[in-house]
Amino acid sequence: MGTPADRPVVIASNRGPVAHSIVDGVAVGRRGSGGLVTGLAPLVEAGRATWIAAALTEGDRLAVATGMTGADGLSVDLLALDPEDHRLAYDVVSNETLWFAHHGLFDLTRTPAYDEQWWSAWDAYRRVNAAFADAVYERAAADSVVLVQDYHLCLLAPEVRRRRPDLTLVHFHHTPFAGPDTLRALPTVARTELLRGLAAHHACGFHTPGWAANLRASWEHWGIGHDTTRLFDASLSSDAASLLDTMASPECRTAGDQLAEQIGDRRLVVRVDRMELSKNIVRGFRAFDLLLDRRADLRGAVSFLACCYPSREGVEAYRTYRDEVEAAAAAVNRRWGTEDWTPVHLLTDDDFPRSLAALVRYDVLVVNPIRDGLNLVAKEGPIVNRNDGQVVLSTQAGAFHELHDAVDAVDPFDLVDTAEAIAAALDRSPEDRARRAVRVRELSLSRTPADWLADQLRAAG
Ligand code: G6P
Predict the structure, then answer these.
(1) Residue from 11, 172, 311 to probe ligand 1 pocket by mutation (most atoms less than 8 Å from CB)
(2) How far is residue 138 CA from its own chain's centroid?
(3) What span, in angstroms and rounded, lies between the C-alpha atoms of 98 and 392?
(4) For labelling, which of 66, 149, 380, 420 has a CA lying 20 to 30 Å from the CA of 369?
(5) What is d(CA 414, CA 434) in angstroms, rounded to the nearest whole number?
């Protein structure tokens, strides 16, 4: 067996590095731009790794059927799972149940409620994990390291470990991990399978030590043996070079010009998020409303640009939340807007160059999640910002662990605290702004995506 640095690698994740769409009847692949892709793609490009992912769209399915998966030198091995199985595993178990548990989103008076449909979905989650386990079993070269990514794939390890003792399994959870008390809201059977599934890996990693400690506490509280599983923490970072490349693109420059015209010389508060319950978008608008209520001098002088692009629209709670976000933005505008000033601009289409242009220009970046595994925007903002922008950051975001020195900390549930933090950031002297902006950029650049990957491979050793 080689050292972790030269062993072959298999990556398993729900969302792959390439998304396919159908153009004139042909599947056309496009490389994704998220942190996972930047972190792991170099291994595939170097010919060292096979990436197994689920076919998510019609385009992906056509790509599988025509043997044309991949794009831009990045190949991906897509599994054409039964679409209904995948929908149940992704929407109902992964996103409505596990995501809610790990982010503390259940409203326990009403949810969860495990009915027969939910148990069918749990069976589907098992089958999807079993299909990934089969794929790893069949395709992994001898002595490979298997990097399993995230909460969609918690059950594949026991089977793979039994059938392929030569493989080393490393799980990386990109979300927070619920503590033992929150996990009581999962059915006993599911909680036990989940915790055992994770304990069947040789190592489990998280973006911060706190989430790893929660997994250990959950194992111990619920009596799950975990003697052979090492816990580690390794935070992901943004790929600065590729962000700066996009920043220099014509699309981003045009978006920057349009933004300058729209905002004029007003101060700018920005957020960039998926339209996601855990991101706490509604409380962000309510805090901004409170700020305008308290500070007459800021009325007409500051705008809030919220780039909240669609996410997981197959889940009803996400659709309802989108309505709530739109209503909250409209309420602020009704209350304070004037003929020549719109307090909140809510942009709900997915436009990465425009989001980046907003990050370049912000005075204050609001990142106030209820809970977040990491939150890469909290690092991307400081890397690209050219306005000595300040970061208002939730203490519950994993990134807070690294950036706390140079941000305005907020309790995500406290509207007064959030309004005051935005005010403090806007009121800061130019010298203090500059000093903190330099520091938060340094902290954001202190790790690279390659460090994160190296930490995962090291955990295999
Ligand atoms: C989080 C999860 C990822 C997921 C991403 C986007 O960051 O940890 O696993 O891929 O959100 O969500 P989606 O459901 O669109 O893949």
Answers:
(1) 311
(2) 30
(3) 27
(4) 149
(5) 27
How far, in Å, from the CA of 263 to the mean position of ligand 1?
31
pLDDT tens per residue across span 154-174: 999 999 999 999 999 999 999
Å from CA of 150 to ligand 1 middle = 9
Contacts by residues 423-426 (CB-CB < 8 Å, ≥ 24 positions apart): 423/291, 423/294, 423/295, 423/298, 425/363, 425/364, 425/390, 425/391, 425/392, 426/267, 426/269, 426/298, 426/302, 426/363, 426/364, 426/390
Residue nearest atom 14 in ligand 1 by C-alpha distance:
312
What number does CATH give the domain 240-444? 3.40.50.2000
- Kindly write down the DSSP assignment for every residue of 385-408, as one continuous string: --S--EEEEETTBTTHHHHGGGSE
Strands (E), 88-219: 145-149, 168-172, 203-206
**Angle between helices 281-294 and 316-336 in degrees, nearest 10:** 10
Q: Is the distance from CB of 85 to CB of 120 less than 8 angstroms?
A: no
- Residue 303 has φ and ψ, to the nearest 5°, of -125, 150
Give the pLDDT band (50/70/90) at residue 454: very high
Kindly report the CATH class assigned to 9-237+451-459: alpha beta
CA geometry: angle at 174 spanning 185 and 190, to 5°? Answer: 30
150 CB near ligand 1 (under 6 Å): yes
What pTM was estimated for this model as a whole?
Answer: 0.97
Q: Would you state the structure tokens that stand for residue 366, as one six-digit string?
A: 């609001």
User: So where are the chain's domains?
Assistant: 9-237+451-459, 240-444
| Cα distance between residue 51 and residue 331, in whole Å | 45
